[in-house]
Here is the input.
Amino acid sequence: MDIPPRLFSRGVVWRDDLARLSTIRAHGITDAAVHRAIARGAAWRPAPGVLAAGPPPARAAERHLLRTTAHLLKRPGHCATATSALVLHGLPVLGDDEPVHLGAPHHRDRRRAMGPVVLHRHQEEPEVVTPPGCTSPWPVTHLTRALVRHAMEPGRHLPWAVVPWDAALHAGMVTRTEIAAELTTGLKGVGTARAALALVDPACESPGETLTRVPLVLAGLRPRSQVVLRTRRGEFRVDLLLEDEGVIVEFDGVVKYGSAGGREALVLEKDREDALRELGYTVVRVRWHDVVSEQGRKQLVQRVRQAATGPWRSGRLPG
Here is the structure.
């Protein structure tokens, strides 16, 4: 992000596009000048007393990152934890503008919500990471603790809790054993975290695949992630295979079929799907609106069960 030159060229030191308002004022920049910059979209306030260069990012994760680092800038000795630490680690989290979670070294309460910030008691030495798009290191709690605290947040939907867990294991950032050890450290209210650990699958490659897989597992089905099948048109990797039901579940991201490249992709995808159906499988396609709500996930399970009622030749094994 480029710092607006006319307004912020008086020696203010910016850290990852952030500066404290007290520092800006100390360099002779007036509040009126700051207000004008905000009004024209050249800056915004990610936290009280902190200014960020440029307009607020469109993506919730990028806004959360800036809000977290802004609060860390004004709270020396604190560290990001729970959801906020996962964002700084570059892991996917779902939800719009969730509160910033900070570990407080001298906080007496285990957890306390204070408006847009949730403070957690944190007595361990934090790690430091350089988040995506940043150049400075910022303090964060250990990744295993952050994953568990994220899952423990009140009202956290289980499939949403599993999303960053799958991503962390898939990237090799943490192991199942390390997470299990964190669950034995005396934390209270770890029921959702224990359930999430039982559902993790390092083979899952995207949040959409996780949100598709978890409700199927909870419904008693046994989907396998990223299975390679041999067809007469070559080998194809499928997102989820339910071998007993003879069903393949594919999560569709955003594909622009209107362009020339998109039309070619559509033809190739149709050929691929035809080849999979020739093996006797039914293909069920899933999009974001099918998995982001509880009702959508229930309907997804029904669709898969209905797809499994067709003829299926038993004994076929994936390639």
Summary: The two ends are 48 Å apart (CA to CA). The chain has three domains: 1-56, 61-199, 207-307. The CA atoms of residues 250 and 285 lie 5 Å apart. Confidence is low (pLDDT under 50) at residues 255-260, 313-319.
